[in-house]
Amino acid sequence: xxxxxxxxxxxxxxxxxxxxxxxxxxxxxxxxxxxxxxxxxxxxxxxxxxxxxxxxxxxxxxxxxxxxxxxxxxxxxxxxxxxxxxxxxxxxxxxxxxxxxxxxxxxxxxxxxxxxxxxxxxxxxxxxxxxxxxxxxxxxxxxxxxxxxxxxxxxxxxxxxxxxxxxxxxxxxxxxxxxxxxxxxxxxxxxxxxxxxxxxxxxxxxxxxxxxxxxxxxxxxxxxxxxxxxxxxxxxxxxxxxxxxxxxxxxxxxxxxxxxxxxxxxxxxxxxxxxxxxxxxxxxxxxxxxxxxxxxxxxxxxxxxxxxxxxxxxxxxxxxxxxx
Length: 324
What we know:
By secondary structure, the chain is α/β, with parallel strands linked by helices. It has nine helices and ten strands. β9, α8 and β10 (282-290) form a beta-alpha-beta unit.
């Protein structure tokens, strides 16, 4: 009977994932406490139905420990600030994705992180587990609608998949909501644990040449059907700079500001994927990102705040449909 109950729960959650549509927005954790008016503006400006809350942890050079509960964290990344954002989102009727995410303090890419000894790997895994459950076991963390168990850990997933499989099982023991993992755009086929999650999470910074999405979309759909899980873009967005479609993940590197290119890039993405709302393989995504702090509406950044693309996203999200 115990296993029957577990199977029923998993099937119920999977059905929910396949029915859900994510017009999502990632909120940047604020450095200091915000007013409710500021959060309301952020969470309603684009009319999203989901909000992603991201409490960053940190790994310093030469260390194998994920640091959290430290002075380096902004208020919005602390447990107090994270819970405040979840409560604010709930008051506005938004569903919440809790997305603990790690920043490597030397600026290197998380997917390349590697260690030589078993001791170092075990230290990383122990501290990462503590970091995730620090938020997930809080009063507000237990109430979120979805949890992202990790973001762009290619090397770690490749070398030590057993850790991730056990982490997922341990979360499932007490958490009943949707689970996903945020894979980088060029590595989403690698994780061996997609069937243990509810959604295939992809950070969709695909490099688009002349073929555009024609090169990538069919492969994603095929993979979704093979695994039996729908795709959600755990992150998508474009800097408002020239040649933003070539390497959406890249730093500005001298490229001039071009709000029109950001707008055109998002139009292409929406016309390609937001027309799939009746499909069973794609379920929307989370725009990266919206700043709560004044002065962070960077002209060259990913945000659409005070740019032509803001009106486009609002229109798409509010209508929840886009004709081909």
